[in-house]
Structure formats: structure tokens, C-alpha cells
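Protocol check, entry for the methods section draft. Step 1: assemble the input record (protein sequence plus ligand SMILES). Step 2: submit for complex structure prediction. Step 3: store the C-alpha cells unaltered in the notebook. Ligand used here: 6-O-phosphono-alpha-D-glucopyranose. Step 1 record:
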Amino acid sequence: MTTGISFGTDGWRGILARDFTFDNVALVARAVADYIRTHGLAERGVVVGYDNRFLSDQLAENVAGVFTARGIPVYLTARATPTPVTAFAIKEHRAGGAVMLTASHNPPEYNGFKFIPEYAGPALPHITREIEENIRRLQEAEKTAGEGGAISWGDFAREEAVEWPAGEWTAGPAPGERTPVARREIIDPRPAYFNHVQTLVDLGAIGRAGLKVMVDPMYGAGIGYLEDLLGAHGVRVEVIHNRRDPLFGGGLPEPTGKSLGELRSLVLERQAHLGLALDGDADRFGIIDRDGSYIPPNQFLPLLYYHLLTAREQRGPVARTVATTHLLDRLARAFEQEVYEMPVGFKYIGQHMLEKNCLLGGEESGGLSVRGHIPEKDGILAGLLAAEMVAVHGKGLGDLLEDIWSRFGRLYSERLDMHTSATGKERVLGLLKELNPPVLGGLQVERRIAVDGIKLVLENGSWVLVRASGTEPLFRIYVEANSEEELHRLQQAMREMLGL
Ligand SMILES: O=P(O)(O)OC[C@H]1O[C@H](O)[C@H](O)[C@@H](O)[C@@H]1O
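Step 3, stored output:
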């Protein structure tokens, strides 16, 4: 029996064969189909995309079959496709939404299901709640039918995965209702995305700068994007890990400093200007500077905001999560721009980008988007913007950072991921609720923010945030401080306070 399917920070994720089964995926697809129909979006159809993971393509076929059997036309991508490209295809086809089969940067045994509504950004909580309610209702209906000896859910899923010829009729969502089987179209969303992204990035300047860029799509759905876009504009590109490997070469498709060792070596060996990496579904970015150092998102986001404000002379607010660097706030203040602080999850940033016409939205975990793009994080766009910055300024990103630090001061930030047992989790959650110390690490606490977890802002502007992850079974402790020594002192103080 299916239990416990829920949408976390970004979609439903599960272990293949254990909870992420064909039957459960079909069940969630039916719940999404009900959502689409209830909101009058069925005629517009749904885009279905998938990453390079084990079975993702077949699961996508399964989902497509569920939709077409319920009268909802499907635009199925011809091959593995990045999440932001699947999201962009909604715009191109004026579709009613998209489903993306991906577990992003999780370990290989995982897969996942993201629903992207018609606005082409991650689904907001009121939408995923409605889908979860549909799931429970379908489960109940199945139980009742099962008790009456009717066919099991598994039979339904298999039947609906079959491609019916157009014009045939099948059982509709309500008993006795008949629905025409809808069309399925195989699409290549790349050309339209390529055209669009060229309106957001100065690829001409990148081409003229004679750059040499190393690319690592980490065996993921981003293969064929950065290298093709840059290569087509005369950039000398070399690419690694550009074949499908559902085991991700024994690592995780997460472009952090720890996992980009090969890219770093290649950048140094080839004396390249830049190394660009993507996560498993290419919505996150990883950047290596020409000296081989990893540029974390908390450094890249201020770099980019500064570039947009100065070199491009653009203006507009910035939306960041509660876990993201306050260096953005310093820049915004200097240029008299607003900052919006959101809970973790790009869905909140995307929403604010639309509502407040933000120039930049970004988060510590490696997601960003800019004005004019869809409200979805896009690692390909981030990589191209990094190349634009290097091309336009004729400097390495590290040199540009030095410029910013000399003007606005330097901040040191780090995230610790702390595993706990189930009982440990309850204990820490209990402590967090009460957490309200007057002093932390010798500094007065000035503000306690409970937007997502608990964030303590200290007298000198340093801050500490503790929250439970919505995608992994762990707590995250984020600290931003004025020196490395202070950073470690604050980490230690918080760990002691929570017994982590
Ligand atoms: O810290 P977590 O709740 O695990 O979330 C980490 C990240 O998960 C997903 O990738 C979301 O799209 C991001 O917006 C979020 O930052």
C-alpha cells in the first residue's frame, strides 16, 4: 500500500523500487492530472521532462501515458532535459504545467517528481498541498475498490501507460465518465531555450574575449548545453563527464567544492579562464575560478548582482533565502535597492521575482535566476553569466571578488550538515522552538527570525541559522561571520547549544 508520499522543499523524492515505484509515480501523475483538470488547464497540455537517472526515461513514459489517458495532451522531451529547460518549454508551448522526473543531486538510488505549474517555476506549497490531497483521495478510492474486489492500482498504472491511438476513448477520472485519449508530441526544447538564453547573456562579448572554459555536467541532464552554447560562440571548450552514468562515476552530481576536483585540475592544466559545472538536472551551478579555487554561491551571487548593477547598469531588488549571504544586502543598500528574505526553496524566490520584478534571485545552495528569465533556478544561465563577467571585466572571478570585498567588506560563510537519528531530530526540533539566547559566542543577539528554522542575527551583523532540511534527513547550521575565527566560534557555540 502506498503511504507517505509528500512534496518536500522541491518535489517528491524517494528511493527507487522501495517508494519510487512505477505504481506510485503513476498515482502522483493522476493526482497532478486531477489538479490540471480542476484548474481548467487540461486543454493546454503538460510538458514531461526527465533527467539521466536510472529509469527516468521510462518513468516519464509512464507519466505521459497517465496524462494522455486522461485527456491531457503531452509534450514529452525527446531526451534527458534540464529542469529549467523543461520549465521553459511550458512557456514555449503555452502548456498548463510540466512534470520533471529527477532527484536532482541526490544519490543514485533516488529518483524524484517535480511539478512545475503554468508560471514555469517550482510549485508553491498551496499547489503541492492540493496535489497531496488528491493523492490521499485516490488512495482511499483505490482501497475501497480493492475491498470490492476491483482491479488494483497496479493494473490501472499499467493500463494507462499504454499509448492509445488518438480518437480512442478510455475511462475518465470520475466513474462512468468517458474521456478522449489525448495526443502525445515528442519535442526538442533546446532550440527555443537557446534562443531565449541569448537574450539574457552577452554571448557576443563572451565570444570576442577568446575564453577557454572547462565544463562538467556531472553525467547529468545538462550534457550538451553549456558546451554547445559556448562552443557555438567561439569559446574553446573541453567537457568531462558528458555521458550518461546513472551511478554518477561513484560520486554525487552535486557541484560543490568537494566534488569538483577533476574540473579544478583540468582548469589548472589547460590554463582555462573558468570551470563551469551543473548538478544532475542542471538547475544548480558550480564555478571554478582560473586559479582552481571554488567560488561558492554565497560569493558568486554578490559578484553577479554587482555586475548587473555596475557593468550592465541595471536596477532592481534582490530576493534571497534566509540562508544566503548578507553581502547581497550591503550591495543593495549601497545602490538603494530592496532585499527580500525568503524561506529556503527556490519556489519562494521565484514567486518574489515575479511579484517584485527582482533583478536577481538566488540562494546559498546554488540556485539563481535573473529578471527576464523564468522564475526557476538555472545552472546553465548561471554558468553563462559567469563567463560574461569574466569576458566583460577581463579579470578572473577571484580578482573581481577582491574588488567587492575592498569596497563592501568580506564575509565568511559556511554550512554544516548534521545527521541525527529520528529521536535526535525530535529533540533538536524541541530545542529549536525554545531557542532564544541573549548572547551567542560572546556577541549580543539582536534579532530572532523564525521564517524557516531559527536565525539569530548578532550585534555585529554576523548570523547563525539552524533548520531541518526538506530534502535530506539532517539539520543544517549556516553561519556568516566577519572572520574565520568568529565563524568557527559561532559554529561551536550553536552546536553546543543544540547538542549537535
Ligand atoms: O535545505 P533543503 O531543504 O534540503 O533544500 C535545499 C535545496 O533543495 C532544492 O534543491 C530546492 O530547489 C532548493 O531551493 C533548496 O535550497
